[in-house]
## 1
Amino acid sequence: MIEKLAENLINLKKEFASNYDGSSQIQEFLPLSNSDLFPIDKEELKLLHEFAEKNPIYYNSFETILGGIPCIVYEGDINKYWLNSIQHNSSHAPFSPTWIMSAYIMTLFAKEYGYSQIIDIGSGDGRIAYCGKVIGVESYSIELDNQLTDLQKSLSTNVNFNPYCFDATQFDYSSLNLTIPLFFIGGLAQMGGVELATGVLKKIESEFNLLHNSGWIFAGTVSKKYRADPKNMSGWGSFIENNSLKLMQSVSLPTAWSFKELDETQYIFSKFHSNSNPN
């Protein structure tokens, strides 16, 4: 069902992108109610809309029909957050969000694979951690930028997804008492993602059980605008091979930065080989 949700979202995104005539910097949609295309729990869908309604990056919304499905389009602007996020010396990737529905689908994958915690690294406005908490998985959000962390805290009153303002490469992950965590790495491999993932991995590699029970999700791309990786995997192949990770699944999902692209963002799900030792 989760793969079908992703496929249905992409199909509606293509219709939306081809017909959208607005001028907002970012735009996305959420279905108004559950349906055959989106058989989503009603309360969970309500909380996804609540995230968008309370989020200051969105300044407008309107109803539309996509693929016969009533939806609400949310239009926004991330300029001030994007500019602030790149001013930090240790920043690895500027803020540019995945779609709320994409974040929700990814957290469903996390739950299906049996992960007990979600750690959203370079979390922006915290939407992945938020969605994780919505579906009942304990979630943590690690964000370097204080302005974005303050935004997260304003959104975590009803759904506490544990926002932390911290450099993820220096954070003490042992303090969270993690058991089977899934780390989401924000940023394409070619835009600082590898450096961020390497820093986090090095931070937890001394804790053998935590490291080898962990899963990793990376944002990848097949766009020719970015340097290809010799091992492929949407830019993450060399990192995955060099660190004894194993590809579990790849799923395409819409993001703010792929809205005008023919290809969606590729999310790479991976985990450690059994009895492997990362470099």
## 2
Amino acid sequence: MTTSELEILFKTHYAAMFRLAMSLLYDEDESKDVVSDVFASLLDGGMAIRSDNARGFLLTCVRNSCINVIRHKHMRERFIRLYSNKAEPLSDGPDDSLMLNELRDYINKGLPPLSRRIFTLRYLHDMTCQQVADVVGVSRVTVHHHLSQSLEKINAYFNNTKQ
């Protein structure tokens, strides 16, 4: 897809895509990020689109991305609460402090330095993905990529160790 074709799609469908994301996420920054990710995937050639169903395809992509964001939100919030120690324990079990130490240790030793920095800025300093991208000097897509990989690694680690 050429940049001029992408620009036409962006101008034509951005507002509807953003409204859909806002109606599902209730967060302006996350909604912008989701829509930007869809266009970034188109630009990278990660998705192909036919002109006869562009609107439906783009809205479906936004909806699916929003569903993924919502699915991961609960897991993220749990990790953030544990890692930052901002909230009460998530359960009454004696394993909470052990899990907190294990999570902190994994983030500090198990994540590459750039991923660790991005994770910390985004979730512990409550920065938007664009703010993190500006501070670190990478694109917003790179920030999303590192966050997704970090959360997958953390989730996989805890799923494997708790079985």
